[in-house]
Amino acid sequence: MPTFIWIHATHRSFLGKYKGALSPLRADDLVVQLLNHHAHFCPESVYLGCANQAGEDARNIARLAVLLSNLPEITPAVTVNSLCGSSTHALEYAYLQLKTHRFQTLWVGGVEQMTRSPLACLPPHIDENAVWEDSTFGWRFRHPVFEEREGSVAGRSMLHHADVLAKDLSRERLDAVALQSHQRAVEHQAHARRECVALYDSQGLLLLDQDEGVRPNLSAETVGRLKPVRQGGIHTPAHLAPYADGVAGSVLSSVLAPFCDGLYGENVAIELVDIIQIATPPAAMPLAGLEALNALLKKHALTLDEVASFEFHEAFASAYILQCDALGLDAFSDSRLNRRGGSLALGSPMGATALRSVCTLAHRLHAEGDESRPYGVATISIGMGLGSVVLLKRHRLYTSSQFK
Question: What is the pTM of this model?
Answer without folding.
Answer: 0.95
